[in-house]
Amino acid sequence: MTDTIAAGAMPVPATTKVGRGLLRVFLGATPGSGKTFAMLREAHDRRSQGEDVVVGFVETHGRKLTEQAIGSLEVIPRIEVEYHGKLMEEMDLDTVLGRHPQVVLVDELAHTNVPGVRHTKRYEDVEEILKAGIDVVTTVNVQHLESVKDLAEHITGIPVRETLPDRVLDNADEIQFIDISPEALRKRMRHGNIYAPEKIDTALANFFRPGNLAALREIALRLVAQTVGRARGAIRPAPQSVLVGVSGSKSSGTLIRRASRLARRFGGFCTVLVVLGRHAEETEPGRAKSKELAELLQCGFIEREGRVTDVVVAVAQELGVQHVVVGESSHPGVRGRLHRGLIDRLITELPDVSVHVVARPALHREVPIAASDQRPDSDMLLRALHASAIRSGLRVYLGYARGCGTTVAMLDEASRRRQRGTDVVVAAVKTDGRNRCEAALGGLEVLGGPTSPARAGIVDVEALLQRNPEVACLDDLAGGDTQGRPITESVPRLLRAGMMLIATLHLTDLRSTVEGMGAMLGTRPEHVVDDAFLDQVTELEIVDITPSLLDERLRRGEIVPASQAARARAQAFRPEVLASLRELAFRILAEHTDRRLVAYMRERGIEAPWEVKPRVMLCVPPRPGMEDVIASTAGLAARLDGKMTAVTVRDRKRSEQEMQLLGAYASLTHQADGAFVTLYERDPASALTRYARKILATEIVVTRGRGRRGTLRKLIRLLTDVDVHVLPTPHKDAPA
Fold first, then answer.
1. What is the tens place of the pLDDT at every residue in 664-686?
2. What is the CA radius of gyration of the chain?
3. Which entry of 50, 241, 329, 603 is 20 to 30 Å from 270 by CA?
């Protein structure tokens, strides 16, 4: 993905444009995040600057606000197709191509077309439009990506009916993430801005549960962070390839997707291997589905006849892969023993390969509430939700650089709250005469009036406490108060007074960013916000914008005066700096989301881990030579954007030498920013299984050794939802 096009750039007449059109995607974590609104807002901006923009297909879902947002944009009439006795509407692809605008809006990229039109999927319509040299702006939700379909279904318990090959997103010229916190989305739902009133209670109790929303959001954030990292050419270790062995059974799709995600994280190629047995015709439908899925995920596909173990080992050696993925058998008796024999042989005969045993899923999870005739009364549910809502809190809009639009986002929310009757005051705002900010400020009340310190971005804390509004807006948490103190020092006091605070924060004012990027960012800010302050934030949302659009705003003088633009471009607004900051912002927000998700799972007693953030648990025996294993596992966790916990089980009295070894291993683990834990129990496998559930581990890493085969077999048998990763045999000359 490359950031190559900017809204507001000088338009190129359609008659002179050559080559392929550009694809711009608004990505959301869930329905209702505001993707369509963002797309329509950009369309109006681009048209106002002279570009020829039309609406190819926008799905309003009957929402009046969305219909109003279309406004005066030119809309291509839809075609009607009869399907099962009903007339269905689809995009008129031929008319779009004949009209040949510069830009066309196409909503819901993963949509499946009604049979009878030219293409099966809407993304195929978009491909044809792009080939005609027309730019496309579109929307999609993360759960519709083919590689995460199984993960979304496992978390939500709700089938994903329509999917999109990951390659479509990989080939996008720009991806912009439209963020919304779970709390804000549920509030938007309660206000009737997403679904009709009669559907609100069912939606809130099912797909729109807080845990679902947080998990999907974290998946999307980490996916975009990885995409941004690849696009900016971040230095990465050598790619590692993956082989996944499947049988064509029902579980094959999950294994293929899991292996595909692993390969993407390692920057390598994934190959799907189907071993044909004596009754191959019985598994033909499953084999066909596995092949189709492999093609969608851009994986290789191989079919071989022979004994499963022999074929898997031979193909792994033939391809020279670094990882082999197999599933854990849920069958007792002979079939189960045969499968364990496969794992034993893989470990024995592929000493230089990581063997991943993907666990069978647990039977329990947070179950959606089924629809019934005794549906709860909507008014009662809404009253209960309002009653349980937090009256005070800190809601922060995060921007990775100046000019992202955090101030406008904050003021827009303040206006919406005021329109609903909430008492809102702007306690600090600094617009610097920017038109967008001034327009967003509109008729909002500014604490102390237009000539007050608040208008210069300075908070009068005592005046604010005396005014005591329901909601106060604090523009720039790195700012100060009238006493010259950082405003962050007064936030706890304001929260105790019962206020809801809506604030903005720039990543370049966060201590870790300032100290990590130093001179690249230019002048050090007067007040730096400690990273620990983010723990006080109730809701954190990123206001995302692509670097090219940010540069366009800079060129138009919307961020700094024109006389300062060149200097800004040489420092904090260099493309490589913006890309690094953007990736970092996504990762920080993902970590914040993960902390809240884990707290939610603890409250609900959910022990089965969700593959949202990898949590790697390394088993450390008290024997020499584990230094390299700890270092490489820490590197693995970092590469997976996860966390490492090293665990040793004390099942007998340790010798002095063993105690010294474990002390050194604990020190090394802490140096790698991991945790080191000692468990006291005679049965290592049972102890490790219980602790894995406690910390929501997604992967247990073990080393090879004949004396540990029994523990490994028992681990695999006991674990559900936790993969077992058997490391390659370390080489004596391998680097640490």
1. 999 999 999 999 999 998 899 99
2. 27
3. 329
